[in-house]
């Protein structure tokens, strides 16, 4: 899969001429992309920061007010946007877009079937989801407008320079000793903050509320088991996995071991039992191999 | 000029003198102590001075930001001033950073996951930028989850030219009248 | 205010703005270059301003000393300024000064330009303050460029309650894991 994707915004701190951000102007985001390196529809959409941003952009483009009706009307384009990305999604982004796409579809269906009555809890839940989406969109729009206000104010303030001038010598002599109200630890934290380089593009995993699982560690574990048992089924190897993420990590670990020529796979029928055999030469040095193993849960992106 | 019945000129002058040597915003109460006058009187004098500089078309202005008073160059003189202070080109904040900053400003103390819910996107990298630039800082942790809570700093106030958070326009001005859900509902659901 | 026939107010304002931010006397000819006016005109305006501040009973005055112009506090306000300074208000370092000091502490010996690169802002005034407060001192020059290198003093250690620089907590403990912070990184990024 291609590297971290387009969608995850180009992260440089300087934004090329930040588009006017008031809700009504969001179409500017959509129609004009300042840095069209490769050209095409795809690139245009990359300027959107998340599904709400896109929704507002689509609504503004159609010159509609933000209403439930407008939301229903832009559903197709929203979904077209998701399609247009093809495989170019990272998991995090895709899921947030899909959740909203699903809600939009409900909304559209509800409009196409005007006689639909609220009959059961499921319908009620749909209605609630729809209203919630609407409310969240309005809320997002409010913050977007405030962001524009902040931008304006920051721009205005940048032209004002405070007086920062060392004390006239006659007074400087009177200055009391510098009083440190910080501890060495706070001082170090301050230094760290002051020296922190401009953030680089990274894929953050903080939003994954699952514990971090190291593919590296799982590889070591599996290698030990397979070395002694000779062969095992994937199911058997995962019998003691207490979370899906561990299963995923073990699967990735097996792929890595396969790449290193340490294991072979055997699967009689599609989706059938996966048999894993330890085929590494006796002098196979796991530590050498393992060091090279990719470890998406620590460094890479989850969708690598 | 020892006429005790009109001491204002000299209190005013004393304030101007002190303001000339401060290197960060100074609270009215501190200035009041220094010139030995009631805080209200000093506050009034400061406002008068500020108005006087404005009316006189001076190249500097007196402003109340981040809870205190400080002299600044006037914005329309920026071109000249910047020939002297090539103060690091303050890189503009990205749209993402501005939106995130807006959420922090209005929702503080707030966790990253809550901001992410409002913006519909992950905000980790952007939060690092804001923290690195001193606009946002950690202010505590959520008792229930242990999540780090963030708030804005006095640098934020200063950069926006605000004297206090209360000067931010009310969020509800930006929401439709019929916005029935209360904010917490919306956020909690996110 | 685009009336070209009466540009004086704005030149005057530009001069005032520049004078507010300079921290050492500036020659008339330099000011003239900055505001793009003949030196004689600028000299006249400066004298007018100085007279105006005097007549207006301002707390500051504009004086020409050592061949340059600079704003000073007025002598008869000295008592107030002294009180303010002694009051301990100034005993604390500003956030900007603290951050700059932190960079010096961890990067010494280091030049001003390097600190400025790291902090993203001009640090000349702040460095002068730190040197003036005895927290930072010149420790040598960079062989290649001749730039002055700075380091922290024993006063700094004492105030922070440390007996040696080695006792400063390791910086990496305070950086996010993924910031493999080496010197070059920092400088390049700054």
Task: Outline the structure in words.
The complex is a heterotrimer, with one copy of chain A (304 residues) and two copies of chain B (190 residues). Chain A has helices at residues 27-31, 41-45, 50-61, 68-73, 75-84, 91-112, 121-158, 169-172, 184-195, 215-229, 234-237, 244-259, 286-292; strands spanning 231-233, 263-267, 274-278. With 304 residues, chain A is mostly helical. Chain A has a three-stranded antiparallel β-sheet with strand order 1-3-2. Residues 1-46, 198-204 and 292-304 of chain A have low confidence and may be disordered. In chain B, the strands form two sheets. Chain B has a three-stranded antiparallel β-sheet. In chain B, strands 1-2 form a two-stranded antiparallel ribbon. In chain B, a hairpin with a 2-residue loop joins strand 1 and strand 2 (68-73). Chain B starts with 7 loop residues before the first helix and ends with a helix. Mean pLDDT of chain B is 85; it is low at 1-9 and 181-190. The longest helix of chain B has 17 residues, at 39-55. In chain B, 46% of the residues lie in helices and 13% in strands. In chain B, helix 2 crosses helix 3. Chain B has two domains: 11-83, Winged helix-like DNA-binding domain superfamily/Winged helix DNA-binding domain (Arc Repressor Mutant, subunit A); 95-174, Arc Repressor Mutant, subunit A (Orthogonal Bundle), CATH 1.10.10. Chains in contact: A-B, A-C, B-C. At the A-B interface, helix 3, helix 6 and helix 7 of A face strand 1, strand 2, helix 5, helix 6 and helix 7 of B.
């Amino acid at each position: 899969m291609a590297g971290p994707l387009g969608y995850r915004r180009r992260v440089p701190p300087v934004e090329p001429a930040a588009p006017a951000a008031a809700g009504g102007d969001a179409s500017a985001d959509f129609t004009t992309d300042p840095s069209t390196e490769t050209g095409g529809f795809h690139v245009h959409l990359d300027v959107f920061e998340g599904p709400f941003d896109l929704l507002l952009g689509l609504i503004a483009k159609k010159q509609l007010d933000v209403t439930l009706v407008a939301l229903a009307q832009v559903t197709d384009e929203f979904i077209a946007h998701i399609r247009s990305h093809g495989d170019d999604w990272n998991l995090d982004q895709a899921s947030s877009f899909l959740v909203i796409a699903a809600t939009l579809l409900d909304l559209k269906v509800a409009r196409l079937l005007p006689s639909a009555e609220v009959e059961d809890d499921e319908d009620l839940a749909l209605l609630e989801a729809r209203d919630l989406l609407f409310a969240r969109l309005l809320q997002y729009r409010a913050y977007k407008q405030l962001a524009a206000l902040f931008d304006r104010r920051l721009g205005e303030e940048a032209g004002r320079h405070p007086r920062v001038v060392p004390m006239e010598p006659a007074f400087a002599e009177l200055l009391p000793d510098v009083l440190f109200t910080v501890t060495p630890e706070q001082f170090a934290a301050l230094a760290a903050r002051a020296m922190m380089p401009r953030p680089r593009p990274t894929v953050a995993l903080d939003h994954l509320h699952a514990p971090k699982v190291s593919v590296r560690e799982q590889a070591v574990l599996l290698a030990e088991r397979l070395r002694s048992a000779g062969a095992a089924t994937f199911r058997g190897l995962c019998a003691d996995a207490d979370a899906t993420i561990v299963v995923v990590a073990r699967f990735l670990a097996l792929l890595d071991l396969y790449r290193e020529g340490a294991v072979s796979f055997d699967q009689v029928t599609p989706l059938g039992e996966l048999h894993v055999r330890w085929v590494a030469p006796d002098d196979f040095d796991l530590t050498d191999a393992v060091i090279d193993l990719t470890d998406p849960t620590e460094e890479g992106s989850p969708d690598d | 000029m020892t006429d005790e019945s009109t001491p204002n000129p000299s209190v005013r002058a004393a304030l101007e003198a002190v303001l000339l040597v401060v290197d960060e915003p100074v609270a009215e109460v501190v200035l009041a102590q220094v010139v030995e006058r009631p805080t209200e009187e000093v506050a009034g004098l400061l406002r008068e001075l500020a108005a006087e500089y404005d009316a006189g078309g001076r190249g500097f202005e007196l402003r109340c930001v981040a809870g205190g008073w400080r002299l600044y160059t006037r914005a329309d003189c920026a071109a000249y001033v910047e020939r002297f202070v090539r103060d690091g080109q303050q890189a503009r904040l990205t749209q993402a950073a501005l939106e995130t900053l807006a959420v922090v400003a209005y929702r503080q103390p707030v966790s990253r996951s809550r901001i992410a819910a409002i913006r519909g996107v992950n905000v980790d990298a952007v939060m690092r930028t804001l923290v690195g630039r001193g606009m946002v800082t950690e202010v505590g942790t959520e008792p229930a989850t242990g999540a780090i809570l963030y708030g804005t700093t006095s640098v934020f106030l200063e950069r926006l030219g605000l004297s206090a958070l209360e000067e931010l326009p009310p969020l509800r001005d930006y929401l439709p009248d019929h916005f029935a859900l209360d904010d917490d509902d919306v956020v909690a659901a996110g």
